[in-house]
Specification:
The structure is a single chain. The chain is mostly helical. The protein has one domain (about 10-130). It contains six helices and no strands. The chain has helices at about 10-40, 45-50, 80-95, 95-105, 110-125, 130-135. Helix 1 packs parallel to helix 5. Keywords: Membrane, Signal, Transmembrane, Transmembrane helix.
Length: about 140
């Protein structure tokens, strides 16, 4: 038997699966991080006007001036945030059993491809989802 060395098919499969699992884990952690980013807290004028110098040409940044932003924020309370995270993780864990059955039936390539495609599409449209289904 001839021993071959180098980068083989198994190495390629292991690398692709590693990348898929890394992307899937990143997408799972992304929801918690973006929840913090899109939920804004009410900023009072005293917070905006702290550290103002006494020069004649200075002005205080008020909430009306700083209201424009590239990023849209939502005033969701803690229970709404917890409900969204709970719904995500319930869906995440309940889909493991059917996807395991599908993986046994069709192999691992099909469910990983479908799951990463759906996850990617949802991640791309996730900034606009609260506009249509905001609680």
């Amino acid at each position: 038997a001839v021993m071959r060395f180098g980068f083989g098919t198994r190495h390629t499969q292991a690398l692709v699966l590693f990348i898929c699992l890394t992307v899937a884990y990143t997408m799972r952690a992304q929801l918690s991080v973006s929840m913090v980013a899109i939920t804004g807290h009410a900023v009072t004028e005293s917070e905006l006007c702290s550290n103002v110098s006494t020069s004649e040409n200075t002005s205080c940044v008020t909430e009306e001036i700083s209201a424009w932003s590239v990023y849209r924020t939502y005033n969701w309370n803690k229970s709404t945030q917890e409900m969204i995270l709970f719904a995500f993780f319930v869906g995440y864990t309940t889909m493991m059993i059917p996807m395991g059955i599908i993986a046994q039936k069709f192999g691992g390539k099909f469910p990983i491809s479908v799951a990463l495609f759906v996850n990617g599409v949802v991640s791309i449209i996730s900034p606009w989802i609260p506009l249509f289904v905001s609680p």
